[in-house]
Structures are given as C-alpha cells and as structure tokens.
Amino acid sequence: MHLRVLEALGRVPPRRRRPARMLGVTLPPPLKPEQTARLRKALPGYAGILDDVAALLEEDAGALNLPDVTPEALLAAQAEQKYLAAREAVAQAVYRSLFEQRMQVDDRAMKMLEKIARRINALKEDDRDLPARWKLAALAGTDDLRRPLPERFKWALRRTCTIAPVAMVPSTC
C-alpha cells in the first residue's frame, strides 16, 4: 500500500531500529562484500565445544602461551554466539512469515491484474481505444502477466505477419 494510505489506516511500517531493539541487538551498518568475504566460516558445532576448549586452555595456558586468547574470551564468545543465534532464529521466522504474506498479496494483486488484462483483451475489438486508455497495450495482448514480453521484442507485435501460400516457402513471420 502507499505510505499515505498506511498512515491514514494507522499502520505505518516500523523503522529498522525498533525491531532491532525488540530483539535486543544493535543495528550497525552492513558490511561491504569484501569484508564479508574475509570473515572465517564457522565449523558445524564449534559453539558447543568452546566451553571444553576454555577448560583445556585454562589447564595448558602456560604451555600454549597465547596471551590474546583466554578462557574468559572463549566463554564470552560462546555466550554472544548463543545470544545472537537465538535472535537470528526468531528474525528468520519473522522474515519468512513476512515474505510469504507479501507473496500472497502479490499473488492476489497479479490475479486481479490478469483479470483486467484478459477483459481488456476480450473487449478491445469493440473499443479499440480501451488498451490505450488503460496504458496496458503491451500487457493486454498477453494472457500471462508474470512473463510480459521484453521491450526489445514488442516491435514484433506491431509487425503484420504474412504466411506464405505454399508450404515449401518459409513464412515471413
């Protein structure tokens, strides 16, 4: 719906920050593709072993000599990963629901447009100006609005087609 209609109905779409606040996460600017490509890919099940690795690291911290990797940092990363994964699952479910609802609305709207296009196509013999008034001249000639004819091929609709009288001679279509 148009934003003014939504405002009149009292259903203004929420901003991005409000859903992020509801989920308890921050909304930083999106990463650039090259930044995303540099991120390490997580191994399946790695978050489940972080506490075991933290315990082992605590025992062997002196032998491994990794001052920037601590058991506390591993446990904090595990907690943050679980926190974000839970919220990501909720956001995915909400996104999927919104996506499917929008697709259903698209389907209903396309069905109505197809009915209009079919009616225009059926009535264009009685009223040749009808497609021009509706500005659906290209769409009224097709029965399937899901795949309208590309602009570069619309010249073919205007071209008159002649069929050769002899079967051996190729037609000009």
Structure commentary:
- By secondary structure, the protein is mainly α.
- Helix content is 60%, strand content 0%.
- The chain contains 9 helices and no strands.
- It has helices at residues 3-9, 17-23, 33-38, 46-59, 61-64, 71-123, 130-134, 137-140, 155-158.
- Helix 4 runs antiparallel to helix 6 (71-123).
The dominant shape is: rod-shaped
The termini sit apart by 43 Å
SSE-based structural type: mainly alpha
- Quaternary structure classification: single chain
Beta-strand residue fraction = under 5%
Low-confidence spans: 140-146, 159-173
What sequence of helices (H) and strands (E) makes up the elements? HHHHHHHHH
Average pLDDT works out at 77
Residues in helix, %: 55-70%
Strand runs, count: 0
User: How is the biggest beta sheet arranged?
Assistant: none
What's the layout of helices and strands?
Layout: H1 3-9, H2 17-23, H3 33-38, H4 46-59, H5 61-64, H6 71-123, H7 130-134, H8 137-140, H9 155-158
Helix pairs in contact: 4-6
What's the gist of this structure?
The chain has helices spanning 3-9, 17-23, 33-38, 46-59, 61-64, 71-123, 130-134, 137-140, 155-158. By secondary structure, the chain is mainly α.
